[in-house]
Amino acid sequence: MTDTVTTHAVSGASALVEKVPLETYVPPAKPSLIGLSRAEIADRLGEIGVQAGQRKMRTQQLWNWMYFRGAKSFAEMTNVSKDMRAELEKHFTVDRPEVVAEQISNDGTRKWLLRLPSGDKVERPHEVECVYIPETDRGTLCVSSQVGCTLNCAFCHTGTQRLVRNLTAGEIVGQVMVARDRLNDWADREDGTRRVTNIVMMGMGEPLYNFDAVRDALLIVADNEGIGISRRRITLSTSGVVPNIQRTGDEIGVMLAISLHAVRDELRNELVPLNRKYPIKELLQACRDYPGASNARRITFEYVMLKGVNDSLDDAKLLVKLLKGIPAKINLIPFNPWPGTAYECSDWEQIEKFSEYIFNAGYSSPVRTPRGRDILAACGQLKSETEKLSARERQALRAMAMTD
């Protein structure tokens, strides 16, 4: 996370590229063990007097109960001695975020508003949104990494928010655990199937401006003795924080998605102001150098379709030229409207022409089906209740959803 606001002059004006977090995390008096690595759990056990020879075994017990079985309290951990459970209860919890609202879309998409545990008695508790998207062959959970966002992408509703603070590893893992709680998706599920099969770091926030917490959380999510979601089913999306792209491949090893959205620097400077710091050439070189990228592990380039802005055939041709030599697929995203935006979604005929050109050039170019628009859960629409929509905004949103 940057310590200062970074600005760059564009067309004679100074424009904000990165926001500064307004607050820091204040842990509860009894902290949760959720989000800690095995080594950190062992250290905490040592601090409460557990003998060194027992810590590895106790850590493994806790890990299994928290991440494989989904235990919500120490009382459920029946193979842990009663005395140990009582001692754990004195000092720790296994709390995850609290669901304060659930909305279910006409298409089955679910959006949860989550309140984060905090020891701050002055500020109101922070809240983030998390979205579950069921499909016939998978269930994808869209996870947030910040309260608000460091960036201010012009077409993104979340980007209109302040950056309140980064989430902790526990708050990120906690979103996955809440989804499993709500969907009855833990190890004791009767039919043995999984409802949450894929994770996308595409919720609120820029994950690579909260790198350490995102890394630690995703390593827990991918651990095969716990939540156990394969790294190949976890995708991290970034607007292009170039220095941390290499680290993502080296230290996390998940699939990479790039929020590209434009093929010329002058337009991307407007749509994704971070481009003023890390322009397209630097970003694409980082993609070429991404560890493990191959035809079997292609990088996804996300491209929101904005009417009359970035949707011409010339744009499609330059996109193909730019991505030459990168194992890539291109995900075309019909723009999801939100109250107050200046942009419109491209006409469907134009989206199809754009997609066809890319496909004929040899790239997979699926058009993302908008999901959860009626509950403001679609791509680019998340905005936490920390900054609530007005009644007029909600009415406008419903009208937009009904006309699509």
From TrEMBL:
<dbReference type="InterPro" id="IPR027492">
    <property type="entry name" value="RNA_MTrfase_RlmN"/>
</dbReference>
<dbReference type="InterPro" id="IPR058240">
    <property type="entry name" value="rSAM_sf"/>
</dbReference>
<feature type="binding site">
    <location>
        <position position="153"/>
    </location>
    <ligand>
        <name>[4Fe-4S] cluster</name>
    </ligand>
</feature>
<keyword id="KW-0479">Metal-binding</keyword>
<dbReference type="InterPro" id="IPR013785">
    <property type="entry name" value="Aldolase_TIM"/>
</dbReference>
<feature type="domain" description="Radical SAM core">
    <location>
        <begin position="135"/>
        <end position="376"/>
    </location>
</feature>
<feature type="active site" description="S-methylcysteine intermediate">
    <location>
        <position position="379"/>
    </location>
</feature>
<dbReference type="GO" id="GO:0000049">
    <property type="term" value="F:tRNA binding"/>
</dbReference>
<dbReference type="InterPro" id="IPR040072">
    <property type="entry name" value="Methyltransferase_A"/>
</dbReference>
<dbReference type="GO" id="GO:0030488">
    <property type="term" value="P:tRNA methylation"/>
</dbReference>
<dbReference type="GO" id="GO:0070475">
    <property type="term" value="P:rRNA base methylation"/>
</dbReference>
<feature type="binding site">
    <location>
        <position position="149"/>
    </location>
    <ligand>
        <name>[4Fe-4S] cluster</name>
    </ligand>
</feature>
<feature type="binding site">
    <location>
        <position position="336"/>
    </location>
    <ligand>
        <name>S-adenosyl-L-methionine</name>
    </ligand>
</feature>
<keyword id="KW-0411">Iron-sulfur</keyword>
<protein>
    <recommendedName>
        <fullName>Dual-specificity RNA methyltransferase RlmN</fullName>
        <ecNumber>2.1.1.192</ecNumber>
    </recommendedName>
</protein>
<dbReference type="GO" id="GO:0019843">
    <property type="term" value="F:rRNA binding"/>
</dbReference>
<dbReference type="GO" id="GO:0051539">
    <property type="term" value="F:4 iron, 4 sulfur cluster binding"/>
</dbReference>
<dbReference type="GO" id="GO:0046872">
    <property type="term" value="F:metal ion binding"/>
</dbReference>
<feature type="binding site">
    <location>
        <position position="237"/>
    </location>
    <ligand>
        <name>S-adenosyl-L-methionine</name>
    </ligand>
</feature>
<dbReference type="InterPro" id="IPR004383">
    <property type="entry name" value="rRNA_lsu_MTrfase_RlmN/Cfr"/>
</dbReference>
<keyword id="KW-0963">Cytoplasm</keyword>
<keyword id="KW-0408">Iron</keyword>
<dbReference type="GO" id="GO:0070040">
    <property type="term" value="F:rRNA (adenine(2503)-C2-)-methyltransferase activity"/>
</dbReference>
<comment type="function">
    <text>Specifically methylates position 2 of adenine 2503 in 23S rRNA and position 2 of adenine 37 in tRNAs. m2A2503 modification seems to play a crucial role in the proofreading step occurring at the peptidyl transferase center and thus would serve to optimize ribosomal fidelity.</text>
</comment>
<keyword id="KW-0808">Transferase</keyword>
<keyword id="KW-0004">4Fe-4S</keyword>
<feature type="binding site">
    <location>
        <begin position="259"/>
        <end position="261"/>
    </location>
    <ligand>
        <name>S-adenosyl-L-methionine</name>
    </ligand>
</feature>
<keyword id="KW-0949">S-adenosyl-L-methionine</keyword>
<keyword id="KW-0698">rRNA processing</keyword>
<dbReference type="GO" id="GO:0005737">
    <property type="term" value="C:cytoplasm"/>
</dbReference>
<feature type="disulfide bond" description="(transient)">
    <location>
        <begin position="142"/>
        <end position="379"/>
    </location>
</feature>
<keyword id="KW-1015">Disulfide bond</keyword>
<keyword id="KW-0489">Methyltransferase</keyword>
<keyword id="KW-0819">tRNA processing</keyword>
<comment type="similarity">
    <text>Belongs to the radical SAM superfamily. RlmN family.</text>
</comment>
<feature type="active site" description="Proton acceptor">
    <location>
        <position position="129"/>
    </location>
</feature>
<dbReference type="Pfam" id="PF04055">
    <property type="entry name" value="Radical_SAM"/>
</dbReference>
<dbReference type="InterPro" id="IPR048641">
    <property type="entry name" value="RlmN_N"/>
</dbReference>
<feature type="binding site">
    <location>
        <position position="156"/>
    </location>
    <ligand>
        <name>[4Fe-4S] cluster</name>
    </ligand>
</feature>
<dbReference type="GO" id="GO:0002935">
    <property type="term" value="F:tRNA (adenine(37)-C2)-methyltransferase activity"/>
</dbReference>
<dbReference type="InterPro" id="IPR007197">
    <property type="entry name" value="rSAM"/>
</dbReference>
<dbReference type="Pfam" id="PF21016">
    <property type="entry name" value="RlmN_N"/>
</dbReference>
